[in-house]
Write a structure and sequence with these properties.
This protein is of the alpha+beta class. The chain is 29% helix and 21% strand. 47% of the residues are buried. It has ten helices and 17 strands. The chain folds into two domains: 237 residues, Fructose-1,6-Bisphosphatase, subunit A, domain 1 (Fructose-1,6-Bisphosphatase, Chain A, domain 1), CATH 3.30.540.10; 124 residues, 3-Layer(aba) Sandwich (D-Maltodextrin-Binding Protein, domain 2). A hairpin with a 6-residue loop joins strand 3 and strand 4. It is globular.
Length: 377
């Protein structure tokens, strides 16, 4: 089994499952009635085998004086779904699920077989757990209701089951993006559209899973961002990237330059500027994978800027607010970065429809400021 000991010094300090204000913490996590002693916070020593995602969550749960375990339970279900999807992705060429289904989704895009499999996996894994009251998926036009035979939980889950579908058949990086809100509708009743149409500032937690050379789950509850790498030999996600911070400025820009002639001239001017060397500035390097989750994963770790502006074909932007932009903006800001639609913080946008689209400018604060200076000139 691989040795994870080199990450030991920072594991304990990174295990911070915080929901914002103390009031939000108390309302989001409620402790079992049997846990009367607030000093019972689990073993003080660092585990010699490494910190799994489950332990990372449980350690924080034990520190919450009113915790029930609902949030931890939901995350375990999301983690299980990610393991199943990752397993199928790794052998997609051998299991007959490459290629298209022959149908289109609500976005008007061709549905890949793996898209359909990933969506069904997340829904079936989460719906019976009693932790959510409704779900929203990029692949499904309407809210996904919880069947009446299952309990109606207090959370709302929204997700892009497989971001970067165009990369599936060429074995390039793809991923799953998700966000969790608290329900707004009365407890115990089926969830509603109102539960889904919540702004990013009300997100309880968000994250993504990258399926690539190694599979990695990254999540935040708003205070910091932690990354976990999957060990297939053990079948667990281990903490490998604690407290991820976006550099103040990077050296990479990520944009689909194939759309150059469809952009506003101000965006064209920014692209021309950022890749042109001057006495005071080195040219930035272009890196574009074609999957938002993969491009922003690199941006989180190395800095730089990810941009998907509106263009003449997509006047409202192309990326989905609820399933892509809002969760990733939550993560980027938690890591110290910036996320804008060109005018406003993405997290402050009030969604009006499930599949609403938005322009996106995210990444290192200084790099985002540069592109917005051009965009608003």
């Amino acid at each position: 089994m691989p040795h994870y000991g080199k990450f030991t010094p920072t594991w304990q300090s990174s295990a911070t499952l915080v929901f914002g204000t103390p009031g939000a913490i108390r309302s989001a996590l409620v402790c079992p009635a049997t846990m009367k002693n607030p000093t019972s916070i689990g073993p003080a020593q660092v585990s010699p085998i490494g910190t799994t995602l489950e332990r990372h969550l449980l350690d924080r749960q034990r520190r919450m004086p009113e915790a029930t375990g609902d949030f931890t339970g939901l995350f375990q279900q999301i983690s299980l779904a990610a393991k199943i999807i990752g397993s199928r992705v790794s052998k997609a060429g051998l299991s007959g699920i490459l290629g298209r289904t022959g149908t289109t989704n609500v976005q008007g895009e061709q549905v890949q077989k793996l898209d359909d499999f990933a969506n069904s996996t997340i829904v079936s894994t989460v719906e019976a757990g009693g932790h959510v009251c409704v779900m929203g998926s990029e692949e499904v036009e309407q809210p996904i209701q919880i069947p009446p035979q299952y309990p109606q939980g207090k959370y709302v889950l929204q997700f892009d089951p497989l971001d970067g579908s165009g990369n599936i058949d060429i074995n390039a990086s793809i991923g799953t993006i998700f966000s969790i809100h608290r329900r707004l509708s009365p407890d115990g009743e089926p969830g509603t559209l109102k539960d889904l149409l919540q702004p990013g500032i009300d997100i309880v937690a968000a994250g993504y899973v990258v399926y690539g050379s190694s599979n990695m789950l990254v999540y935040s509850t708003g205070d910091q961002v932690d990354g976990f790498t999957y060990d297939p030999g053990v079948g667990e996600f281990f903490l490998s990237h604690p407290n991820i911070k976006v550099p103040q400025r990077g050296g990479i820009y990520s944009i689909n330059e194939g759309n150059y002639h469809s952009w506003d001239k101000r965006i064209q001017s920014w692209v021309d500027w950022i890749k042109t060397p001057t006495e005071n500035k080195k040219p930035y390097r272009l890196r574009y994978i074609g999957a938002m989750v993969a491009d922003l994963h690199r941006t989180l770790l190395r800095g730089g800027v990810f941009v998907y502006p509106r263009d003449s074909k997509n006047v409202n932007g192309k990326l989905r607010l609820l399933y892509e932009a809002s969760p990733m903006a939550f993560l980027v800001e938690a890591a110290g970065g910036a996320a804008s639609d060109g005018k406003n913080r993405i997290l402050t946008i009030q969604p009006k429809e499930l599949h609403q689209r938005t322009p996106v400018f995210m990444g290192s604060p200084d790099d985002v400021a540069d592109v917005l200076r051009f965009a608003n000139a």
